[in-house]
Amino acid sequence: MAGKTFELEQVLTYRREMEKLRKQDFAAAKQGLEQADQELVREKELVELLAKEFQHCQQEIGCIDDMRMYSDFFARKRDEIKQLKERIEELDQVVNEKRSDLLEASKEKKVLESLKEKKADEFRQEMATKERNFLDEISIQKKVKPK
Question: pTM of the entire structure?
């Protein structure tokens, strides 16, 4: 497409940059969600391990204060797990919003890219037509020349 540039090239460049930023935002949100998921799994495993340990040593615990400490600990862990689940739900919502933003940015970019390609095709066809007409004119002039 030498000789003619796409009129909306700056807009297309901007849309490409926006898509790139949306990809980064989406990746960061997804990473945050994955980290929260891993943290939840670790917390659940820890509580499960400590619950088994508590069951094994429950008979040996003689003091009510020790039982209360275990009870308070498990209550606190249940609250932490509940908060983690809520945080994961919020992060999941953020990831879905970022995904939606990314899809929208991609669509906007693709519209301009397809428009650019369409304009480039039109330009190539126009140039081919002009070249054909020029060659036709040259061949007509050669045939018209008297010998």
Answer: 0.72
